Model the fold of this input.
Amino acid sequence: MKKMQKTVMAAILLIGLVGAPLTATITMAQDAAPAAAPAAQQASGGTGLVDASGKEVTDTQQKSGGGGGFLDIVFGSGALGVILWFALFGDGAAALYFVVDCWVLIRPQKLMPQSLINNVQGAMAEGDVMKALKACESEPSPMANILAAAFQHVEEGYDIIQEAVNSAADLETERIMQRLTWISVCSNLAPSLGLLGTVQGMIMCFATLASGVPDIGALAGNISQALWTTAGGLVVSIPALTLFYSIRNNANRLILRMTALTMELIKDLRNVEVEGGDTAQA
Done:
């Protein structure tokens, strides 16, 4: 129950980190547009916009051109624009999944369970290596895999044991870092998708200008598309990148702690090796 509560709390926190900036940006943009229109009308005595023939666009004509909301930007940006927006949303969802996954798995209780440490310490105090190995097999975890590698080479000498421990530790570290790498991939992919949307918006903008009789509404929509995709990419990238480094630093601390504790637990294998030699000679 506690694990589920922590997972839910982590998901809520991450949704807030990702959603709050985007919501605030959308709200500010939508509030700024109506506020700017009256000011422009008061200054010029009209809307300040003209159509292709040079006539002033009335307020009624301006309102009939579309709301210019966020959904209009998404679905009015063409097939490529819609694909880019869905890719951005998918990238944000993937980043959220991997962050929650790493947040849940990269914890002391998962990497080095206290019950495993107690069982191995008790078995080593008795000099029973097989009991310690069974304790590792009964509680699978990164630390159990490292200790099992040591106990499986107990008859080959302490130098071989250290090499086995180092190899197993490197393997477990790589497995942990591979999970974290996906957060970094999502955080780096989001600005690239945003930049691609910006390029698409600017291409559409200049294509509108090249038509000779540019539509002001279409031109503004293309510029909005360019800016919104950039903002969307940054909204996904910044929280994901921040959480990536935070979780990675925590993982490094836990890995160092786990390695030091492992070496402390297997130091008694020197005596086990000597006892095994004496027993063989007897």
